[in-house]
Amino acid sequence: MDSGNNNPGLNVYVIDEDEKAIEMMSDVLRNAGHTVTAYKDSSDALSNITKHKPDCVATNLMMPGLDGLALCKEIRSNAELAHTKVLVVSSKSYDLDRKRAFEFGADGYITKPLNRDTILDQINRIIEDKIDLRFWGVRGTLPVPGDGSLRYGGNTSCVTMEFPRGQFFIFDGGSGIKALSDWLMAQNRRRIQAQIFISHPHWDHINALPFFVPLYVQGNSFEFYGASHGDLSTENLISAQMDGVYFPITIHEFGANVTFHDLREEELEVADIPIKTMLLSHPGYCLGYRIDYHGRSICYVTDNELFPADNEFHDPSYLSKLINFIQGTDVLITDSTYMDDEYETKIGWGHSRISEVADLAHEAGVKNLYLFHHDPDQTDDDIDAKLAAAKKILAEKNSKQFVMPQRQTLL
After folding, report:
1. CA 127 to CA 150: how far, in whole Å?
2. Which residues contact 235 (CB under 8 A, 6 or more apart)?
3. Deepest in the core among 48, 152, 220, 232, taking most CB within 10 A?
4. Long-range contacts of residues 74-81, Cβ cutoff 8 Å, at least 24 apart
């Protein structure tokens, strides 16, 4: 899933005493259409930065003379360089150094060793201040292997958001988190710090957490967030499926630093990013999440049943509350499990039909609607039919929403 290059022709200064790092970054950036000027001496670079005002400066942290922090301070003290992005590229993976770089005005922090396959995505995300949204599993209830699930995949719920400053959010740990695990390990990522948000503990949302390899790696750090269920905390709910009876390895085998947090309907900040939660219409406690970042928002709302207006369980006050929660969001990822005729025999199962989802997106002024949590009996062709049905309903309402297939998105 290639994010592409949305900022062609940028003027980038690369400053590093490491010739191999300069060579790799210069090669990758030039192949992407950027102009690169390389320096081994940051003091020489500074006068040219002031004169030519490049779009981006990528600088090492540890350098003789003018080090990376001092260079960042000099750039940020010059009002004429306000639009110049500063990337710190360093072998220092410590939290202290990362925090200090941001305190001095860095826009991003990339840890060496550099990966040729991912460095351009990292740089683009920082320069463009984009959120990298990826879908690793979009099915509900059960994983679905086979020919009928090749386009949209057969894994159950897992979605990630990666932010310019390195914040990494993981939503749910269905079987899709195994594909995420493989991807992270293939990149040889080190000292991963991430937050894992659990919507609810039904198996299709947590059953592959024991197979998420980064949890077993020392030096990584993960925070779990989810709704408690009465006397069962988030930690209880996660550890129960790994208590030695259902799975031979317990959470005590985790090598990473792992902590747990219980959530209610509330507003909070996680890794400096505002998040709102809402309890959804689904058996047990199930949380929806709204993430707001620099004027953009993403709502992750699964699982959720929208009862039709003629149904005895239809609750106008709940619907109004949900519309307010997702109002004007850039991205709504939401339960769209059934076609309307399928729903007639699944009422009360905790999932929605496509017409109610389209109406919800229209009423809330959602900009991009992502259909999610597909029934295991549906093939890719069935999902395409739901997509077409949603587009038709919204077109009839003269809505401006885009209905999207699941893929990597930068926003």
Report:
1. 33
2. 224, 260
3. 152
4. 74/46, 75/49, 75/105, 76/104, 76/105, 78/50, 80/50, 80/53, 81/49, 81/50, 81/53
Q: What is the pLDDT of residue 262?
A: 96
Rounded to whole angstroms, the Cα distance separating 41 from 35 reads 19
In this structure, the answer to whether residues 120 and 141 fall within a common structural domain is no
Q: How confident is the model at residue 411 (pLDDT cuts 50, 70, 90)?
A: low
- Average of per-residue pLDDT across 182-194: 91
Question: Domain containing 44 — which CATH number?
Answer: 3.40.50.2300
Q: Per the domain annotation, does 237 fall within a domain?
A: yes
Asked if residue 384 has pLDDT above 90, the reply is yes
Domain end among 128, 162, 193: 128
Which of 58, 93, 128 delimits the end of a domain? Answer: 128
Cβ atoms of residues 322 and 290 within 8 Å: no
Q: Is 25 domain-assigned?
A: yes
Q: Which domain holds residue 240?
A: 132-410
Q: Are residues 161 and 119 in the same domain?
A: no
Question: How far is residue 213 from each of residues 155, 180, 188, 254, 304, measured CA to CA in Å?
Answer: 17, 10, 12, 9, 30
